[in-house]
Amino acid sequence: MKIQCPKCEAKYLTQLAIDSSSSVVVTCPKCRHRFTVDPLKDGKPSPKILIVDDARFFRELIMDLLVDQNVELTTAHCGEEAWKLLQSVSFDLLIADINLPDISGSDLIKRVRNDPHCASLPILCISGVYRQDDDARQAFIAGANDFMTKSFHPEDFTARIDKLLAR
């Protein structure tokens, strides 16, 4: 199967062992970026989701929750990295932490909303800090479509993802 890394755009061929689960997590040999591919796609493109969080654990947790959802997942560890990806790849959903190390999640959302190429992108904002009311208010003012704390139930999370992708 021919695969292209969405982060560094490296192209390579690989053989995948396919079982009943069609999505496979791949690590790019060039830049070590983890993303999912679906070798059994039915001809229509899988929705592309960008996950932005400075906590590697949480990025991987979200990937684990969504790996069976027939979506293509890309991760970024900071707002600037996410912004560069958003300028070069057309995503169907952005999941962004409100508290990022370089620019805030709110500032990233404002950039997205002010860019004509991605202004209509659905955005789920997440926060692990217990200032939930302030964080939620900031996220919605910036233009987020939904907000969750990181202490969520997996079924609630995937239901919100499905709803945002159906827009």
Automatic annotation (TrEMBL):
Keyword line: Phosphoprotein
Response regulatory domain span: 48-165
BP-aspect Gene Ontology terms: phosphorelay signal transduction system
4-aspartylphosphate, modified sites: 97
SMART domains the UniProt entry points to: REC
Residue spans crossing the bilayer: none
Protein name: Response regulator
Record organism: Pelovirga terrestris
Organismal lineage: Bacteria, Pseudomonadati, Thermodesulfobacteriota, Desulfuromonadia, Geobacterales
